[in-house]
Amino acid sequence: MKDLISVIGARWPAGKRPLAFPRGFRGLALALGIAACVTVPPAAYSAAQWARERALTELGETAQARLTLYSATLTAELEKFRALPLALAWDPDVTALLAKPRDLELIDRVDRKLSALNAGVSLSALYVMGRDGVTLASSNWTDETSFIGRNFSFRPYFQDALDGKVGRYFALGTTSQIPGYYIAYPVWGPVWAENHTLGVVVAKVAMDALETTWKGMGGERVFVTDRHGIVFITNVPDWRFRTLRPLSADARQELRDSQQYHNAELRPLPALDSAMVRTARIPDTEWDVHVALDSRPAGDRALSAALSAGIATLLLLAAGLVVLQRRMALAERLEYQRRSGLMLERRVTERTAELSSANARLTEEVAERERAEREVLRARDELIQAAKLAALGQMAAGIVHEVNQPVSAIRSYAENARLLLDRGRLDLVRSNLGEIAELTERMAQITRQLKTFARKSSGILTPVSPRSVVEHALGLLGAQTNDLGAEIVFELPEKAPPVLADEARLEQVLVNLLRNALDAVSARNHRLITISLGEDEEHVLLSVRDTGPGIDEDDLPRLFDPFFTTKEVGEGLGLGLSISYGIVQGFGGRISAANHPDGGAVFTVTLRRAPEPAEARPFSA
């Protein structure tokens, strides 16, 4: 203190008296010391509390942002492989294998197909299970830990898929001892089969790649728990298969029955006292994602703030003695605030950039998916239109023959009319002109039918008369029917209920079914085709039956598969029934095939009834 006083006195202007402190200077110094003891601790405590709360708030925002990112990566990983087992569930070879589980050639073919698919997507395993839970084919069929012949009927994912639902389950493999996420889809059999579900297709997704990615994303600890609080995915290996809370006896019994975690010890998770934990639920699951960030830096910031506040308070108390020290203390405080602000802005900018990048990636994925869906719809419409034009080409010879007859008759009537006109027989000329007019109308009717059939569909579902559609289809096939000498029995009421469909596409379905029926009876002595109509409260059933040889029972399940045909080579591509199946499904209906008890085949198109138009009501002011 004496040194400080001497410095101040030395700065006093020349010729003036040096600074002389009052006699009560010691009292003032004592008062300043007491004030420091009184004010510094509260100031330091308040600053520490504020700094702690601020640090915890920032840490919480960081944890929430990281939690959103980890949840998005986990959801993307779960959804990435969802389509593969769904596509396999509709694969003809898989369906055939489940129908004939002892066919060694089918087993080998499906094994190799699963192995090739798995090599492209790097799953843990792809396998097919029968209704009894026994694995019939697997991508790891050559490994020592192959699933072939293993029975996994005790797994919940198999039971869910067998009930017609999508099975989702995470478990430790009882055979491979490798944990993974299981996605199971049912394989449907024919609708008339007694057991509609033939078996199950399962994809096992390993999570080690995701955990490796999480290890490199940040210093925080991440873990995922199931509904029992058991950690099964984490970037901390020692935490795997630890529990957040004690397991009840019922939970332990359930885990033993399903062998979800096999022989794992399921010990309690270490205490997280020095960590800030944020939790979020993964949609459509019973899983929780947890992010744990170290909260000790918040304590360090609080201590630093307390020390800074104490020092600042002491400097303020000493400001009455030395102005220079006050200015230095003020500059130090402003610099500290500026650096804190810059640090906060930098962190906010970094977090905003990360979230913007994640949002841009999600937007791009959504746009790509929508573009793919539009391409699929466009390709389907072009395929339907191509099939329609191909059908017109196949019917061209018969249509030309039908048009050629009225053209020849018109020529004859015209030549006769010219001779009769020269002879003055006007009454006969008028009769010939009438015949020409009728033949011209007949040709116009054939042309209208062709234009209606060939035009592109609007894609809009409207009320359509099934009788009108059948009449147009028969008109297009009239020449082929007459050439074969086939008999058409028309069992439709005059006032058939309208159905909800696209008229052009429904006509295409009927033309395809009638052409198939004509082909079926072409080699028979009794050539009869019966078109009938049935109905209930919600549907209209349009049936086409022929007296042909019928359909082989082994071919019925594959009849509507693309490129499957029972005709000779060169007589068809096997797309007609497949396209018809897709068209009727687009109407919200269904199409099925069966053999009639009296012989021949019968195809049934089930369509929704069109809603009744609203009754007109009188207007009242």
UniProtKB/TrEMBL annotation:
SMART domains: HATPase_c, HisKA. Gene3D superfamilies: 1.10.287.130, 6.10.250.3020, Histidine kinase-like ATPase, C-terminal domain, PAS domain. It is found in: Cell inner membrane. CDD domains: HisKA. Residues 398-611 form the Histidine kinase domain. It catalyses: ATP + protein L-histidine = ADP + protein N-phospho-L-histidine. The keyword Chaperone does not apply. It is an enzyme of class 2 (transferase). It comes from the Bacteria. Keywords: ATP-binding, Cell inner membrane, Cell membrane, Coiled coil, Kinase, Membrane, Nucleotide-binding, Phosphoprotein, Transferase, Transmembrane, Transmembrane helix, Two-component regulatory system. One of its GO terms (cellular component) is plasma membrane. GO terms for molecular function: ATP binding; phosphorelay sensor kinase activity. The chain crosses the membrane at residues 302-324. It is a multi-pass membrane protein. Its EC number is 2.7.13.3. Its main location: membrane. Member of the two-component regulatory system DctB/DctD involved in the transport of C4-dicarboxylates. DctB functions as a membrane-associated protein kinase that phosphorylates DctD in response to environmental signals. This is C4-dicarboxylate transport sensor protein DctB. Residues 355-389 form a coiled coil. Signal peptide: none annotated.
